[in-house]
Specification:
By secondary structure, this protein is mostly helical. It contains 16 helices and two strands. About 5% of the residues have low confidence.
């Protein structure tokens, strides 16, 4: 009998024809069959066999070629943005956005290279918003219409390409609109924090609809969690902490935290890590690693060590913690779930350890 494809299994699961356990078993069988098929030389077999939504099987990176191309796209986008700015910006940014869209057609639809398309989509959002902001000046609220047009542009992008990270970019567009509407009347930290919590709640709703992490609901949730974490932490930092601005060598501005503020930040990241562990989402941790390293560095900088030693010790502690948690992830989850509610609706929020 012919094995079902990933898309067919997804559709059957969403239609209620099979349950999550059956879907997972069918996907595992399909993958085993493809791995055992030595005569298959199709370049599309690996992406098709990949489990959608499984955090351990990231489908948006197929090979180093994707990483290489994505790096080039990032550099190209930065150069294009700077060049357009030199020549006056305005409509030039919209022309740049059109060029990025054409590149998305090639990389996103023809080549199905998701990582390069992610970089292009983010650049497309920035170019559209900057271009519309340059062209539209409506007096009292100049940012609202550009933000609305940016949202529409990202909705169009999602409709055209149907890639999961587009949901996070739509969410970022909504955050831009929130700042256009409320910026200046509501503190920036509060807006960032509430925006991050709203994205986190939306991600949880996607997770609750797919506890087996088998469909695109889980992929959507991954990117929303990944986006929510830095918004939450940065919002907390802006609103609660009292950083100092110092200049390195009297030239380069840098934020400096006292020990109390660094401790508070590290505790916040630790709490976020516990939440990520409970809901089985490493994305919450990954996107907050920079903040964790920042806080650890300021906690140990007054020990008398020189800058190089502080950096080395920070990397040692941060890297060791990540490796320890990565290796013991499932064991730590099992211990944590013993003190959390895991029945009824809460079982959808805190999925069991397999």
């Amino acid at each position: 009998m012919t094995e079902m494809t990933q898309n067919q299994i997804d559709q059957a699961l969403q239609a209620g024809i099979i349950d999550a356990a059956q879907a997972k078993e069918m996907m595992a069988k399909t993958m085993r069959a493809k791995l055992n098929d030595k005569s298959s030389n199709s370049s599309n077999s690996a992406p098709e066999a990949a489990l959608i939504g499984d955090e351990e099987n990231m489908r948006f990176v197929r090979s180093f070629s994707d990483v290489f191309i994505a790096t080039g796209i990032g550099l190209l986008s930065l150069g294009l943005y700077a060049s357009i700015g030199i020549f006056g910006g305005g409509v030039g940014y919209l022309v740049g956005a059109a060029l990025l869209w054409l590149m998305c057609e090639y990389f996103g639809r023809k080549k199905r290279a998701h990582l390069p398309t992610l970089f292009l989509a983010l650049a497309y959002l920035i170019f559209v918003h900057r271009g519309m902001s340059n062209l539209l000046d409506l007096g009292a609220a100049p940012g609202i219409l550009p933000a609305v047009i940016t949202i529409l542009a990202m909705l169009l992008f999602y409709w055209r390409f149907k890639l999961p990270f587009s949901v996070a970019l739509i969410a970022l567009s909504l955050v831009i609109l929130v700042f256009a509407l409320l910026g200046g009347t509501v503190p920036t930290g509060i807006l960032l924090l509430l925006s991050g919590l709203a994205l986190f709640a939306t991600a949880l709703s996607y997770d609750a609809r797919d506890t087996g992490r088998l469909t695109r609901f889980a992929d959507n949730a991954f990117w929303l969690h990944f986006t929510a974490a830095p918004l939450i932490i940065h919002g907390f930092a802006v609103q609660v902490l009292t950083p100092e601005i110092v200049r390195i060598w009297g030239v380069i501005p840098m934020v400096q935290l006292g020990k109390t503020d660094a401790t508070f930040m590290l505790l916040t990241i630790g709490l976020l890590a516990l939440v990520g562990l409970a809901i089985n989402r490493r994305a919450l941790l990954v996107s907050s690693l920079g903040y964790a390293g920042f806080a650890i560095g300021f906690l140990i900088k007054d020990t008398g060590l020189n800058l190089g030693s502080v950096v080395a010790l920070t990397l040692l502690l941060l890297g060791g913690g990540i490796v320890f948690l990565g290796v013991g992830w499932h064991g730590a989850r099992k211990a944590l779930l013993k003190v959390l509610p895991t029945t009824g609706f809460m079982a959808k929020i805190f999925p069991p350890v397999e």
